[in-house]
Every structure is written in structure tokens, then in C-alpha cells.
Write a structure and sequence with these properties.
two-stranded antiparallel sheet, 8-stranded mixed sheet, 12 helices, alpha/beta, 37% helix
Length: 313
């Protein structure tokens, strides 16, 4: 059994919360070195609070959580309260967490950890805008070659955009950081909207989580009850897509997913398509592949994995 040393970079968000819970429920496979928080779905003050709430709900208050960047590298912050609610975790009754933030800046932690751990041993799991990672790579380029791989939720190709007609939210918020990451040479696995829109939190799937009758199961179901309302109304789907947990599920059970190694470029200039992930899915350019771009998922297998794991907490 492979045990992955992991840093999760996150902007919780209900779907981020489910991803974090899935990682915390899988200690045999996930050695979670720490969480780093970034501004995205909601401002940084709220994302770092939400990360601590999630860890307390999971009964894991010893988890190291550090606050990172509070704004994109070159742009004003765009947030998504219209999707996630004012707190980012609307749905369940929230509380003020008692566990403290860990001292130090998230970007410093990423740099120091990659320098300290054996080269090629740490996987970066990114669930939000790539500001912390892009900043770390720019400030300390020596760490780039030390990353085992980076598994991200971000981007889209066939599904195009969810925040603009062309761009997915995480990439749109900080396209310059995304460009740094995609040009870095780090092995990248991308969970775009093309796959996450196939992982729908339908009523039977949410009810199965609620039926766990645990604090985690009920908290998760209440989050998803709120979270799905936006995308169900927008797409007319049977449930809201559960984006970020695909990143952790890929580490746990990669055979649930399939995709292609393609070239992905980030649009940083156009007002019309800013933040677009231009994926050469059909191989029509001579640009070298720089990412495994996932397109298919066994959704039933995904929810079976998620429900069984959350039952452990």
C-alpha cells in the first residue's frame, strides 16, 4: 500500500471540506503533513477558520493548519459566496474553532517542507486558487524538482467555464499563479470540471452520508444540502458536482479515473477568456504534454469510497 506524503492547499468551501475529511479518514494512505489555506471561495480569514472547523468536526485537532496568501499574485481577489454562502461552509450549524492556527506562513511551510523531506516524496494537493503554490515556486525555484506530483482541482475544457463563459473559478482567481505551475515542469494531474461534473451529490448519495448518523456524516450531508442548490439550479442536474474530493480520491483509488496526457496552457491576457485552461485534447499543436487531464470517473465507485471512508470518522 502506497502512503502519500501530502500537503493540502485549500480554500474551504463545502467541497474542500469533504476532500479534507476524506484525507483525514484515510491515514493508511495519506500522511497529511499539513494544510495551507488560501483566499478563494471566501477571504483568507474565513478559509483558515473553516479549515479548523473541519478538522475539529473530524476529531483531528492536532492537524497543522497555516494561513497563506490573502490575495492573488497580481489581481484583486474574486470570491464565490454566491455558491458557498457567506461563511463558505453554509448549511450546518457552525462554531468558533478552539484549535489554533499553526505558526508561520503557508508559503514558508510549503518551501521548508519540500526542502526538508526527501526529494520526490511530497505530493501537493490543491483545492483552490494556486496562489500559495505559484508564490512558493517563484520564491524558491529549487523546490520545484523536489515535488513528487501536484494533483489539482481546476480548469475545464469541454465543460468550459463556471465563473466566466471560458474559465473555471480556481484558475480564474489567479491565472498568473496557474501559469507558473503549469510551466514549472512538475508532474501534474488535473481534475477539471469535465470530470467533477460527473460526480454528482444526488439525494440518495447525500442520504447515505446522513445515514452514517455520525457528526461527520450529518455535517457533510448538511453542507451538501446547501451546496447543491446553486449548481442544480444552474445546470439542471440531479445533484451538485463534488469537485475537490476528486483530488483525494485519485490518490486513494486512481483506477476510478482516466484521462489523457496533454498540453495545458493558461490564458492570462485576454479579457474575454482570462483564466481559460487551453487543453490540447486532440493533439493539434506540437506543444509537449505537461499534465494528465482527467475526463472520466466511476461516480458510483467514488461515492462508495467516500461513504465508507467518512464512516471511519
Amino acid at each position: 500500500m502506497t502512503r502519500h506524503k501530502v500537503i493540502i492547499d485549500t480554500d474551504p468551501g463545502q467541497d474542500d471540506a469533504v476532500a479534507i475529511l476524506l484525507a483525514l479518514a484515510s491515514p493508511d494512505e495519506i500522511d497529511l503533513l499539513g494544510l495551507t489555506c488560501v483566499a478563494g471561495n471566501v477571504p483568507l480569514e474565513r478559509t483558515q477558520t473553516n479549515a479548523r472547523i473541519i478538522c475539529e468536526v473530524a476529531g483531528k485537532p492536532e492537524t497543522a493548519i497555516r494561513a497563506g496568501c490573502d490575495a492573488p499574485m497580481r489581481r484583486p481577489l474574486v470570491t464565490a459566496e454566491h455558491v458557498h454562502g457567506k461563511t463558505g461552509l453554509d448549511g450546518p450549524d457552525l462554531f468558533e474553532p478552539s484549535m489554533p492556527l499553526t505558526d508561520g506562513h503557508g508559503v514558508d511551510f510549503i518551501i521548508e517542507t519540500l526542502r526538508r523531506e526527501p526529494a520526490g516524496s511530497v505530493t501537493l494537493c490543491t483545492l483552490g486558487p494556486l496562489t500559495n503554490i505559484g508564490s512558493a515556486f517563484q520564491r524558491a525555484p529549487d523546490i520545484i524538482a523536489r515535488v513528487k506530483k501536484l494533483v489539482m482541482m481546476g480548469g475545464a475544457y469541454f465543460e468550459v467555464g463556471n465563473i466566466t463563459p471560458a474559465a473555471e473559478f480556481n484558475i480564474y482567481v489567479d491565472p498568473e499563479a496557474a501559469e507558473i505551475v503549469f510551466k514549472s515542469g512538475v508532474p501534474i494531474v488535473v481534475m477539471p470540471l469535465d470530470v467533477t461534473h460527473k460526480v454528482l451529490a444526488t439525494k440518495p448519495r447525500v442520504d447515505a452520508l446522513r445515514a452514517l448518523n455520525s457528526r461527520v456524516g450529518i455535517f457533510t450531508a448538511e453542507m451538501l444540502d446547501f451546496f447543491e442548490r446553486f449548481d442544480v439550479a444552474k445546470y439542471g442536474s440531479a445533484g451538485g458536482p463534488l469537485h475537490d474530493p476528486c483530488v483525494i480520491a485519485y490518490l486513494l483509488q486512481p483506477d476510478l479515473f482516466s484521462g489523457r496526457h496533454v498540453n495545458v496552457e493558461i490564458e492570462t491576457q485576454s479579457e474575454l477568456t482570462l483564466g481559460m485552461t487551453v487543453a490540447d485534447w486532440w493533439g493539434v499543436t506540437d506543444r509537449a504534454a505537461n499534465a494528465l487531464f482527467i475526463g472520466q470517473v466511476d461516480a458510483d465507485g467514488f461515492f462508495d469510497l467516500l461513504t465508507k471512508r467518512l464512516a471511519r470518522l
